From TrEMBL:
Record organism: Desmophyllum pertusum
Molecular functions per Gene Ontology: actin filament binding; ATP binding; microfilament motor activity
Protein name: Unconventional myosin-Va
Lineage, broadest ranks: Eukaryota, Metazoa, Cnidaria, Anthozoa, Hexacorallia
Keyword DNA-binding appears in the UniProt entry: no
Matches recorded under SUPFAM superfamilies: P-loop containing nucleoside triphosphate hydrolases
Cellular component aspect of the GO annotation: cytoplasm; membrane; myosin complex
Gene from which the chain derives: MYO5A_2
Similarity-based family: Belongs to the TRAFAC class myosin-kinesin ATPase superfamily. Myosin family.
Length: 260
């Protein structure tokens, strides 16, 4: 499923279709808001670019559904997926307010709390309670917990979809070979890097080291061993960067110590 996170934008584009009305993503569901766009959702308006030129999200939604049909995800399963995705969007809009003494609370009448609980099939009061009251939780901590819930739900849904696709592609014949896809590492630097991005870049550093070790260092050692005449290639050794992250008193070690 190439769309990945873009499914949220596609879902909003198709929100007025009869079978998706109950998700309350469109004007009828967000009647208290002045506009009828995906920018009403916190998770979709952070980048301030909810639309891409020459990209029809409604058409992309239909293509995605055809792909789901092709890999054997039934219509009722598709609707279940859309309910979960819509629930995630509504979770992002739950308004967590301070309640004195560095605690937090959610209004009993919060529209998005009610809709998210309904779509995900959980008790509204319990959902509200555990979003704010694990311990004495500040608004900032409660917001972080809200985002963690959304990420976890999405992660589990993504794994389930991958499993569905793998099951549909299983032939039952004993495998004698496999097809692998190499995703070349790439480093990204943002104005504010999240911990997730730090972990991604750390993994990329390890991949780069593996690549350079085998393609350059070990190959050159083999040429020396076999006394092959050739010109040595200078390459960047990123071991100091990896040591900075994973060595004793490195970044990960210090983070673990500070979390205790």
């Amino acid at each position: 499923m190439k769309e990945n996170y873009h499914i949220f934008y596609q879902l909003c584009a198709a929100c007025d279709t009869p079978e998706l009305k109950d998700l309350r993503l469109g004007k009828s569901g967000l009647s208290y808001l002045p506009t009828h766009t995906r920018t009403n959702f916190y998770y979709l308006n952070r980048g301030e670019c909810p639309y891409v030129d020459e990209v029809d999200d409604g058409e992309g939604f239909e293509e995605m559904r055809e792909a789901m049909d092709l890999v054997g995800i039934m219509e009722d399963e598709q609707l279940m997926i859309f309910r979960i995705l819509a629930g995630i969007l509504h979770i992002g809009n739950i308004d967590i307010q301070p309640n004195g003494d560095e605690e937090s609370e959610i209004d009993d009448q919060d529209f998005h709390l009610a809709v998210a609980a309904d779509l995900l099939g959980v008790d509204r009061n319990q959902f509200k309670k555990w979003m704010c009251n694990r311990k004495i939780v500040t608004v900032q901590e409660a917001n972080c917990g809200r985002e963690a819930i959304s990420k976890h739900i999405y992660s589990q849904l993504f794994k389930w979809i991958v499993q569905c696709i793998n099951n549909s592609l299983t032939s039952g014949v004993k495998q004698c070979s496999f097809l692998g896809i190499l995703d070349i590492y790439g480093f990204e630097t943002f104005e504010v890097n999240s911990f997730e991005q730090f972990c991604i870049n750390y993994a990329n550093e390890k991949l780069q080291q593996q690549f350079t070790q085998h393609v350059f260092k070990l190959e050159q050692d083999e040429y020396v061993k076999e006394e092959i005449e050739w010109s040595f290639i200078n390459f960047y050794d990123n071991q100091p960067c990896i040591d900075l992250i994973e060595a004793k008193l490195g970044i990960l070690d210090l983070l673990m110590k500070s979390a205790r």
